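Translate sequence into structure tokens.
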Amino acid sequence: MNGQLAETLPAAEATFQAEKASLLKQPKAVWATALAAVFAFMGIGLVDPILPAIAKNLEASPSQVSLLFTSYFLVTAVAMLVTGFASSRIGGKKTLLIGLAVIVVFASLSGLSGSVNELVAFRAGWGLGNALFVATALAVIVGVASGGAGTAIILYEAALGLGISLGPLLGALLGGWQWRAPFAGTAVLMAAAFLALIALLPKTPLPERKVRLRDPLLALGHKGLRTTAASGLFYNYGFFTILAFTPFILGMDAYGIGGVFFGWGVAVAVFSVFVAPVLQNRFGATKVLTGTLFVLMLDLFGLGLAAGHSVPAVVVLVVISGALLGVNNTIYTELAMGVSDSPRPVASAGYNFVRWMGGALAPFAAAQLGEHFGPQIPFFAGAVAMMVAIGVAFAGRNSLKSHEPHVV
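Result follows.
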């Protein structure tokens, strides 16, 4: 037994070193797609630093401005059901390019909005482009990356984390000058990514089996995937309560809000790429998931206590939440990709359809609760959502654990 272990450890170490070495040795097409993914994920937190400015300039209430997130994520969620159908028929490259083109158009229109209703509508169109791009980018990176699927997923998670952290920073830098500028800046970046993919990404082959429109919904018939998606819905409610409502209680300008959420985004990125895999390998995905959800519940409860009383405490708790969210993002993605027998793109579409509904509901619900009952209540509601997420994961723990790799 000891002899086998002695042989296994050097082999595992050799494999790890080989994957590490191959991580940076990628074709130009991989880097072009990953960079475009960074720009796409920047769109999530881009508007955070300018939410108060949008409310002031367009004479809108926080709940009206929160619809920028709701329309974006609602369309993203529904569009997840058709992205696999489209990409399996026209190919990954064309789907990516169409998604980027849609984002360029609607990001540009967002910057020209004359009312909050127009801006909400244009953000909805932006959500469609985001769904087409994001849902296809991982499959494309896996297809063209060297080093295997594991390396590709690390690159994708790195792009996600970098985009989430840079979005608020870009929003602050440009939004501090003019609230419309971040939308124009995003359009320029996505247009550059569009040109880069045309030049650098080879034509992607069509899959052997075409995805049907109902396949993502049928995939949710698997208890493990259904459990992951349902828990993810309530988790995302807490996630986007923090992201969408906190800017209204910080009392800062665009630069201050951007700085806070840049720190938050860096925590998301670091913990999703470097910490989550270590914890998962040591304790198992289910234990890590329920544990971090519990700590996130406490963090949201602390935000509720601090809201309206201590801005420094709110800032610290927001950054801490980024670390917890980073771990959970990776764990939920890993479970969604591997817990069922459905093809990864199909499982991902079904999972994202359900969980983004939480992202669509939270911003508007949090703003309404804040306006009517005070700034503490949205965070307390988010803490309750974490309790439900834990309960769902615990109830379905057997279906999750049966698909986990052995921990070391």
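Note: The chain has one domain: 26-401.
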